[in-house]
Amino acid sequence: MGLLGGFLGGYLGQLAGASSAPTSSGTPGGSAGTVTGFCDAATVAARVLPAIVTINVVSSAGGGVGTGSIIRDDGYILTNNHVISDAANGATIIVTFSNGQQVPATLIGRSPQADIAVVKVDIGSKLPAVAIGDSDMLAVGQPVVALGAPLGLSSTVTAGIVSALGRDVPVASDDGGAALLAGAIQTDAAINPGNSGGALVDCNGAQIGVNSAIATVPNSAGQAGGGSVGIGFAVPVNLAMSLANQLIDTGKVSYPYFGMQVVAIPQDVAEKFNTEPGLFVEGVTPGGPAEKAGIQAGDIITALDGQSATDVAALTRIKLTKKPGDTVEVSYLRGTEKGTATVTLGEAP
């Protein structure tokens, strides 16, 4: 079994001193083209590489290298939060274009929960921007190309396929909480530390994901090893762009909330108490969305929007993929009675 190798972009080298890479919490569109075979990687590279940048984050304590993609010709760049998180504490961001030009960048905003961030450069002229695809149209087996700066090697191109879709990959967050790559795209295109924040694109060169994490094989000490074993994960571009647009417009992301506190009931515990696995509702916020919908403390939530809810990541996924005002169908168990409720999500304070 592989362990999630954690965040990739933290090829945290010795730019100005020692630092350590963050690790994961687990042991983890216009998408045209045939579903079999491989992309013409040379054509894709020529089309996309001008819109791919290497991101260096430098501070007195050290630094790191990651990747970003230019998503607007006025200088907005999409990347992972873990690539630039030190900039929130005063570190300097330097962007290197494919032609070698280096310019400083400004942090626009970030979502630690989804591991997405936006930075911006100003050079007084239009920049080549990547085309944005539709990650909802992907198919397993579809050929893809990954572009980035693995181990700091800028303008690196690898090819593979979409290995799986809809993976929820928990990873550590720099704010001390948990982040989730919600509905992640799994690919066997080689991704390594430094690729984080780079583009996963289809055969037309349209970005369909943000390369973010890998699974690795434990070493002899039982710790996660480094390097690609053909299991990488990318944030779907539809989700990434939804968050990026909010960051560009307001500098922050508006998350929805249920207004309830839950804890997961594992399968073995459920069997011991002769109940179903799910999310045990410890409490509800008075006047909050869950209470208004009829959810009560003591209920066991078994499904959210028709998907089984066996861990807290199910709630996190709703938080990242829904908006305030959206509705969520909740299936629950109250004692021995089953019920459903429709929760209209509120806006988190």
TrEMBL record:
Which superkingdom heads the taxonomic lineage of this protein's source? Bacteria
SUPFAM superfamilies linked to this entry? PDZ domain-like, Trypsin-like serine proteases
Does the UniProt entry include the keyword Protease?
Answer: yes
Which Pfam families is this protein grouped with? PDZ_2 (PF13180), Trypsin_2 (PF13365)
Ranges for domain PDZ = 247-336
Signal peptide location: none
Q: Which UniProt keywords apply?
A: Hydrolase, Protease
Q: Which family does it belong to?
A: Belongs to the peptidase S1C family.
PANTHER family in the cross-refs: PEPTIDASE S12, PROTEASE DO-LIKE 8, CHLOROPLASTIC
| Protein name, UniProt field | PDZ domain-containing protein
